[in-house]
């Protein structure tokens, strides 16, 4: 790598046009690997066999293609040389033959080829953006030995691409020339040139490096479709994609070209004619400014080509230039509109940069927000006539964008500001901006405040179902608005109904209220209101509220009555329905409270919060029941601790799913059933199996969890089983552990279920806790975390099992507001 910074791994010194490369001409296929061409033009395969017919044909085709490519390259080079000769003819005032001799002599003296010298001469004469891009390499080169070669090479490439583009008769040839001469040396592999339609659509005008089928699929992009070219068009700036697959926008070749990409708007004079899209096969690092300027120069070259080839290209107006002839149709169009319209022509400076728009024409309906006549506005620059257009409303930016992209712009209630003697006058208007050829048509409809308020009032009356009236008591004239005819169910051509006949169109039961309303209004001459049921001619009855006030003269005589009718039928029926709903809700709440009270009484009668101690030698038994805080959440938690005839102690806790009276009654059934089954002397596992049969077959869709144990005081052995319940907790000394999680389905889930059974030998001082999930369950914690907290709480040293249960209940973190049952036994 030389000391001069390079745009890509390719060395630009090796990319000067040579007789093997030409702008965008087909390179053709290569000779198959299995054959080679000898010096005599014949081919032979790898084994030295005589050349086949296919090999001879391939070699011939390849040789012809190289000749065609060299001829095209030479033609492009000759165009550049001829252009340099023309410059010499103009500068030296000599003949073409003398210019050719001068060019040859100067090239020999400078040690350059005629093509390289021709590029330098054209650059010196043009001094355009292509020249700047080429000279930038020389200015930034660190090695004097290489800067001349690299700068000359770039100048040749760019000027050759320009010559080929000017000589081409279509944009396809331009795209091929750009890729061959200017972009391939930068490492680019594909290029696409898009043209922008009047409706904002994109058409693929030229491409190189893409497959024919891929180009056919992307021939036309409708307006509004988000693509890479659309992004550059919308933002009106160059967009670089270091890795195009990460951009997330589609474009031509996005499934095959996985490297970097740049998209450049191609425009002249502030108007964008198309978009230049360049693809690289690898990811792009941040590019130096000289590469960016070179890409922008190529985009400007494409813009000139698109402007020349476009059927809509009408050029741009400059200060003092004659308007295009096609403006006559646009002027006629503006004059045929009923809204104020302005025809704007773009104004560009000497460098081709858009600076402003000139107001070429205003139609007869034109209304200036500042009140100026048409003559004071026509011929003036837009920013001079309306300097605030570049301020709060961004009107100038909208016009500039429409002119650049061709996409029309429409907005409602857009603020417009005009300056009159440095005083801002604000107005609101509906704005429409569209591009027609090289001109812009600006239409605005300034909103009339009185018309806006009248329209607002009309919509408010329609939405509120309000109809206004005024009745002249002297002449008898009555004025109704259109909404009042609708309320009465009358056609607009019908005669209005006077107030004195109001009772005849109302329900008979409302005649007293209407009479009181009329007396207050006409006799006492005070504002009045009343509600009545209007009986319309179509048989529909509407609930109406009327409000009116008298209009008096200076001598307090009644001149007129004005007021309004409002249809309150929806409100009336809503109030009726709301009253019925309140009554029904009160009745439902009363029934629910009664059911909850009965369930609570039943639960407390069967399971009091505490119970008397059980007389068992060597064993202390304590129970606690904590009901839910809300009476409406009466649950099905239950416990039992009873001495059986066999002197064994039955210990069990359970939880029926659900709340309310059904859960409470189901709890009573299961608890009593377990007591009766325990008398048989069966094991805990068998008891739970039988209890599952009761829950599944003898109750209505009841499911529950339970843990059951039989403790033998003589042997201190506890046999226990569980059915979907949390395991008991053993507190031995300063340690608390949960018993093994034996297998067992919850009660009532299936018709037949078997449970595992476990045995535990208790020692003196051991405490065993059985509990329901209301003791540990939390909404934001798992069951394992809640059980770990219970084990930590149960390790406390307590004088008795009663105090241990109180401590566990006090430090419980459960937040589900559920019932809680706890049984504790301690061996003494």
UniProtKB/TrEMBL annotation:
The lineage of its organism: Bacteria, Bacillati, Actinomycetota, Actinomycetes, Kitasatosporales. CDD domains: PAS. Residues 61-122 form the ANTAR domain. Keywords: Hydrolase, Transcription, Transcription regulation. InterPro entries: ANTAR, Bact_Sigma-Reg, GAF, GAF-like_dom_sf, PAS, PAS-assoc_C, PAS-like_dom_sf, PAS_fold_3. It comes from the Bacteria. Residues 20-29 have a biased composition (Low complexity). Residues 528-580 form the PAC domain. The keyword Transcription applies. GO terms for molecular function: phosphatase activity; RNA binding. Residues 1-55 are annotated as: Disordered. The keyword Hydrolase applies. This is Antitermination regulator.
